[in-house]
């Protein structure tokens, strides 16, 4: 189907091709707009701008659908592992048993950090935010693997390294901040179990054996976070990578973008909000009234794309229930979260604006149950998102049409004027 759209401007008409995706979603192809008309499109926040065609992840925000390479998120959460899902995202197909073994081994044998990197931790203050350490350490990896600086390098080892070492960096951060020696990875453990071991092993205690229920819950959390098409951090990875900066630099930039409270940082903000509600007596209706008066924001609610429900939030709510009962834990914050959801979902303010719980609303409850401290939540999100960032970076690097990302602007500032020396400058009236 070669559909075209016609744009009329002034006396002239311009023809634009229509691009159609797998599920019939359509876009005006404006790539020759400026050349043909001299005009650009203006779309702050990129509400209507497709930055690329992609084969990795499909989201239908109206119907709450999320597919990785065609596979529904619910099926992957139920049956897959984080390592297998990472392979799927990065290489496009579910691995055969041989491919999965080779990929798992790649991750197992790249889990250590160069010993010199361990000393870098000593330079950070003990109260440094773990996201600051994570982005710095990931960027520093390029210093230890300088062949990654070669433009257009496609060495698969860099993919294995960043995916594997990120959990070592995160766990070392946690141990160092608690004044403990780091726990080195153990090759006989799988990806998630190894992470839990590096986080929670204590030198004075018996060998830590990760609880299989915690391992399953962690796999699910990481799978749910593994990709979400062109969000803020993934677009950052693509933009940085488009300049042919190395993979570690691009991923480090993605980590920084994820840090913000309107993106991955929301999971930490949700727990802060729930704690405040508890401290104020646990009155969810009063909190919702404040949100409606725009005095506060309901963190973990709302999404640019999901306008019905976020399928990841539904899965996490079920797993939060499952994990808390397995651990025989009672968490008041989970009760408050459930009440808050109930009050919000029956309120016109949230219904009219199509605001529903997003992935961050319940993820913190699970992390708390696992013993992961609040300031590490966004780091957990970053570990999960690494395969998505890699998949997008790889897809972009393999695209023969790759060009450096460079948006334009409409300049609204002062017109050309001449420089005035300091002495001649008069104070501006207020
Ligand atoms: N609480 C209260 N009101 C909200 C919320 C919220 N969480 N989210 C949106 N709204 C309101 C806005 O005030 C606006 O109302 P108005 O039209 O009367 O002014 C309307 O809903 C539309 O909101 P926008 O901000 O225009 O939506 P946008 O798509 O730009 O923002 C975002 C999406 C950033 C996620 C927003 O919903 C938000 O700030 N949520 C809380 C933070 C959060 O949970 N972020 C995590 C997102 S998931 C992720 O990144 C992994």
Question: What this model shows, in words?
Answer:
- The protein has 430 residues and is mainly alpha-helical.
- The protein contains 18 helices and six strands.
- The strands form two sheets. A three-stranded antiparallel beta sheet has the order 1-2-3.
- The longest helix has 22 residues, at 156-177.
- The protein is globular, with a radius of gyration of 24 Å.
- The structure holds acetyl coenzyme *A.
- Residues 262-264, 266, 291, 297-304, 353, 355, 358-360 line the site of acetyl coenzyme *A.
SS strand fraction: 5-15%
N/C terminus separation: 60 Å
Structural category? mainly alpha
> Cofactors and ligands present?
acetyl coenzyme *A
Percent helix range? 40-55%
Q: Major sheet: size, sense and barrel closure? A: 3 strands, antiparallel
Rg on CA atoms, Å: 24 Å
Number of helices: 18
Counting DSSP E segments of at least 2 residues, the number of strands comes to 6
Give the neighbour order of strands across the main sheet: 1-2-3
List the helices and strands in order: EEEHEEEHHHHHHHHHHHHHHHHH
**Principal-axes shape call:** globular
Low-confidence runs of at least 5 consecutive residues: none
Q: What's the average pLDDT?
A: 94
């Amino acid at each position: 189907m070669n559909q075209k759209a016609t744009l009329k401007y002034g006396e002239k008409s311009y023809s634009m091709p229509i691009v159609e995706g797998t599920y019939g979603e359509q876009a005006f192809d404006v790539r020759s707009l400026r050349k043909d008309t001299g005009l650009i499109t203006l779309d702050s926040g990129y509400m209507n701008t497709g930055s690329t065609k992609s084969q990795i992840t499909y989201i239908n925000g109206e119907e709450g659908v999320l597919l990785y390479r065609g596979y529904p998120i619910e099926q992957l959460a139920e049956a897959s592992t984080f390592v297998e899902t990472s392979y799927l995202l990065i290489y496009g197909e579910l691995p055969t048993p041989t491919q999965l073994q080779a990929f798992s081994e790649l991750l197992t044998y790249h889990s250590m950090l160069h010993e010199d990197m361990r000393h870098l931790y000593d330079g950070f203050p003990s109260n440094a935010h773990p996201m600051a350490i994570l982005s710095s350490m990931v960027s520093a990896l390029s210093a230890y693997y300088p062949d990654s600086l070669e433009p257009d390098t496609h060495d698969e080892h860099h993919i294995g390294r960043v995916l594997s070492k990120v959990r070592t960096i995160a766990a070392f951060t946690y141990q160092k901040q608690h004044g403990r020696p780091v726990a080195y990875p153990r090759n006989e453990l799988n990806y998630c179990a190894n992470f839990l071991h590096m986080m929670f092993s204590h030198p004075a205690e018996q060998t830590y054996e990760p609880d299989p229920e915690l391992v399953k819950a962690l796999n699910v959390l990481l799978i749910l976070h593994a990709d979400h098409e062109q969000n803020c951090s993934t677009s950052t990875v693509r933009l940085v990578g488009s300049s042919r900066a190395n993979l570690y630099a691009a991923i480090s930039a993605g980590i920084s973008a994820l840090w913000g409270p309107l993106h991955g940082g929301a999971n930490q903000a949700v727990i802060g909000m729930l704690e405040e509600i508890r401290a104020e007596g646990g009155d969810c209706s009063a909190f919702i009234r404040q949100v409606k008066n725009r005095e506060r924001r309901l963190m973990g609610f709302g999404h640019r794309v999901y306008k019905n429900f976020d399928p990841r939030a539904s899965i996490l709510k079920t797993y939060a229930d499952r994990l808390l009962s397995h651990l025989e834990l009672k968490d008041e914050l989970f009760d408050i979260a459930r009440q808050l959801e109930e009050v919000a979902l029956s309120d016109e303010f949230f219904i009219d604006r199509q605001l529903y719980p997003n992935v961050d609303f319940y993820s913190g409850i699970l992390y708390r149950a696992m013993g992961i401290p609040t300031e590490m939540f966004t780091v957990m999100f970053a570990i999960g998102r690494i395969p998505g960032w890699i998949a997008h970076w790889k897809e972009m690097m393999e695209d023969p049409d790759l060009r450096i990302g460079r948006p334009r602007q409409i300049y609204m500032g002062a017109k050309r004027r001449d420089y005035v020396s300091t002495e001649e400058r008069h104070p501006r009236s207020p």
